[in-house]
Amino acid sequence: MKSEELLRLARVLKIPLSKRAIRRSWLIEEILLEFERREPETAQARKLHSPAIQIEHLEKRFGSKVAVRDLELKVNPGEIVGLVGPNGAGKTTTLRILTGIIKPTRGAVKVNGFNMFSETVKAKHCIGYIPEKPTCYPSLTAREYIMFMSRIYDVPPEIALVRMRKYVDVFQLDEFLDAYIGTLSKGNLQRVLIVGIFVRNPPYVLALDEPIYGLDPRGAWNLKALIKRLRSEGSAVLISTHILEVAAELCDRFVIMNEGDVVGRGTLDTLLQYHKDARNLEEVFLGLTGGIPQ
Ligand SMILES: Nc1ncnc2c1ncn2[C@@H]1O[C@H](COP(=O)(O)OP(=O)(O)OP(=O)(O)O)[C@@H](O)[C@H]1O
Ligand SMILES: [Mg+2]
């Protein structure tokens, strides 16, 4: 959607426009707000169930290998929880079960109150997932994919177009909108997947598997800023990352896994109180997952 089209839409929606130069980001926010104002009941109905993510007694075995053992985890609306742990700890397995890609050996997961394995369509409708290894339909263009996602998730086309413009601006995807997904670089593919989630209606329940890895510094900064803003607007985020500075910056609470077990959990303050010799999240993490290297 071009700036002139946004202006035309703003006039149709009777958004007061001053004579001063109008920033496109401001105009987009005003248009989206006006859409919300026109359908207050729909916006109200979209409030998330609490907890938005609920994982109970989760276990996953691959043959004799236990990838996840008796995991309990909740994420409330307005909260970012960090799932951290060394390679092979079970983070991706947990997120893949949470998003319904693989089934657990035991235990239950609920998304926005819906059981992922008995109310699958409703549960999947509520969750946004960034996989560890981004993949997507190679023969769609970025624009086709984003609009396809908006249709699957029942977003009215005019709202989808404005939201797509908002996030294409944020993630600087303009020049790639009509490129085939199969031709995109890893970081740009990841951005397209991100926009494919945010074109949907907020608030979001997000399962993000190493979402920062692969993005350049500006993309990473924009995604972190966006996640923080979404938290303040009531979204619920479960994020796995190895980048502990990112975890410390973003997350309200942590669940630290090691070889399928939870070995620590809580806020950074709680973890530091409990582990007196650790000075930061990195030292808590190293202490709980094999010891601080000498
Ligand atoms: N499909 C599978 N078949 C067999 N074993 C698997 C499968 N998927 C995962 N595993 C094993 O389960 C364990 C947990 O893997 P997982 O990918 O969840 O770890 P992770 O915490 O995401 O690690 P990383 O930080 O490297 O991404 C590992 O030992 C892995 O080899
Ligand atoms: Mg992983």
In short:
The protein has 294 residues and is α/β, with parallel strands linked by helices.
Bound molecules: adenosine-5'-triphosphate, magnesium ion
- Uncertain stretches of 5 or more adjacent residues: none
Biggest β-sheet: strands ordered side by side in the sheet: 6-7-8-3-9-10
- Radius of gyration (CA) equals 20 Å
Walk me through the topology.
Elements: H1 3-12, H2 24-38, H3 40-45, E1 53-62, E2 65-75, E3 79-84, H4 91-98, E4 106-111, E5 114-115, H5 120-126, E6 127-130, H6 142-152, H7 157-170, H8 186-198, E7 205-209, H9 217-232, E8 236-240, H10 244-250, E9 253-258, E10 261-266, H11 268-274, H12 281-288
Parallel strand pairs: 3-8, 3-9, 6-7, 7-8
Antiparallel strand pairs: 1-2, 1-4, 4-5, 9-10
The protein binds adenosine-5'-triphosphate and magnesium ion (MG).
Adenosine-5'-triphosphate binds at residues 62, 65, 67, 85, 87-93, 132.
